[in-house]
Prior knowledge:
heterodimer, A: alpha+beta, 24% helix, B: mainly alpha, 80% helix, 0% strand
Amino acid sequence: MKPLLLSAFGLLIVSNAFVLAHVAMNRSGEPESEMQLTARELQYYGGRSDESGVLLMLRWTNTAPEYPTGLPGEAPVWFDQKKLEEIGFDLSVPATSPQAARFYENLRSREVFVALEYEGPAWEAWLKDREPRLEKESSYGPQVTLPDRIEIERQTTPRLVTTDVARDPAQLRRKYPDRTRVMILQALVRAKLEPERRASLTAPLRPAYLRGAITRLAIESINVPQPLSRRLEGKSYSPWTYDGNRVKIEPPPYSVTLRVGSKFEPWVVDVNPLR
Amino acid sequence: MKPQERADRLRTVQRELSELEREGALELTPEQRSRLEAHIESTLAGLASQFDVDTSESQRQISWGMKIASALGGIALCAAVVLFLARYMGYWPTPLQVTVLITIPIALTFAAEFAAHWEKTLYYTALISIVAFAAFVANLSMLGSIFNLAPTPNALAVWGLFGLALAYHFGIRLVLAGGLISLAGWLTATTNSWRGWWWVEFEQRPEELMLAGLALALIPLFIRHAKRPDFPAVYRLVGLLAFFMTMLFLSAQGQRSYLPMDDKAIEHFYQMFGVVAAAATVGIGIRRNFTGVVNIGTAFFTIFLFFRLIDWWWDWMPKYLFFLLIGVVALGLVAVFKRLRGRMRLAI
C-alpha cells in the first residue's frame, strides 16, 4: 500500500482512537460532580422528523450576562475588574480612556471554568433580586399578573446559577467542595465596558467601568443515549401556558442524573419520569 | 506531459495541417500524409486504450459533463450520508453509533482505492473520495456530539491532513481544496487560541486567515508538483480567495483589524491595498501565465473598484449618472486590458 493511502488510514484510526481514549479518561474514576436535575435545567424540546437523536438543552441562570435584562445599569457584583484581571484579561486601557470602546469591543472571549450552584443561596438571592424587576419585565405579556410572574420564576426557571469563574478548575473546586451541589464546566467570558451614564436626569453621572460577562457554556446541548432517550418520548417541556384567563404552570415531567468527568465534559447517566 | 494534453496536441496538429494544406502553405505527398495520419491515429488509439483519454471534441464535452456530474454527485452523496446518519443514528445504541461512524470513512477510502485500480479516468474515484472526506468530517463531528465533547480546532488539522493525503494519493482537486480550507481554518483558529481567545470566533479577527491564504498561494513556488501539475492552481485559487475575501471584509469592518489605527483609516487602507494587490495579482498572473490567478485578480480588482465607486458616488449622484459612469469605467478597463494584450503580443 502506498504511503499516502497508509497515512490517510492512519489519520482515521489514530484520531478516532484519540477521541475514544479522551472519552474513556473523562468518564473513568470518580466523577468531578454528579447531580440530579429536572426539565427546568435540562429541557427537551421534542424530536424532529429528520433527526432521531435526543438532545437536552442545558438551561442555566446567568448572573453575569453580556446584555442584562431588567433595569438599566445593573451589573453583577462578583464578576468585576479584579476578577477579569485574575483570569488573564488585558485591561491596560482605562475604562475612561477615549480608546476604551474600541479596545474592549475587540477584546475577545476567553475559555475559563465556571461554577454553577444548584438550588442554593445564589438561586435564592437571584430570585430575590428579580422580584422588584418583574413588574417591568418585557418577556411577560401585560395580562400576566405580578404574583403569577413571581410564581413562574420560582417554579420554572433554571436553578443552576453561575457563582464564580476561574482559569484553574481545581481552584474553583477548593472554593466549592460540594460535588452534588456545584458543577464546574467550561465557559466563555468576555470583558465588557459599561459607558458612563446617569440612572436618571437628576442623578449624578456614574463613571465608565469594566465588568465581566459569561457569554456561553462550551457545551450547552447534551446527548441522551439509547435506551435512556426512549424515556423522554412525549416528554417535551413547556414550563407555563396562559389560556386567556389564568396561568398554568407545568411541573417538570422528568429528572436527569448528570455526571461531569475529569475533563469537565458532562453525560447523562439516568432519566426518570416524574409524572 | 499528461496523456490528455498529448492527445489534444495531436488533434490540433492534425487540424492545423489540413488548414495549411487548404491554404497552400504546405504540401505533403499522399504517402507522407497517410503515414502521418496513421501515426497520429495509432498514437491516439494507444493513449485512449492505455489512459482512457478523449480523442475527439464530442468525447471531451462528454468528459466535462462526467466531471461535473461526479462533483455534483459527490456533494449530493455527502448530504445523503450525513442526513441518513442524523435520521437513524439516534435509534442505535452508542457502540453501534461509534462503529458505524468509524467504519464509513474507512470503507469509503478502501472503495476509492478499489475504484482507482478499476478505472483510468477516476470519475468514480473522485466521487467516492469526496464522500470519504465528508464522512470523516461527519465522523469526528458526530462523535463529539454523542459524547458531549467541547469543540477543538485540532479536528480541522486532522481533516485537512486527511484531505491532503487522499488528494495527493488519488489526484482529486476538489478534495485538495477541502483539505486546504480545513488547514487554513486550523491555522487561523489555533493562532487565535494561543492568545487565549475562543477559537470558534476566529472570523472576528480575520487577518490571520489573510496571511494563511497568502501562504497557501505561495506554497507552489517552494514545493514542486511534478507528479500533480494541476495542483498548484488549486493552492493559488484557495489561497487567493481567502486572501482577497478577508481583505474585502476588512475594507468594510475596520474594527476587526489588529492594526493600531482608527477604524475608518483601516477600512481606507484595505480598500486601497485591495485595489493595488488585485492589480499586482493580475500582473503576476500574466507574467507567469497563470490563468486562474489572472481571473481572480481581475474579479477582485473590479469588485474593490466598484465598491469604492458605490461608496464615493451612490448617495449623492443621480442613479442614471452613476450607472453611466460604471459603464464608462468598464469601457476604460476593457481599453486597458486590450492595450496590455497588445503589448504582450509585441513582446512575443
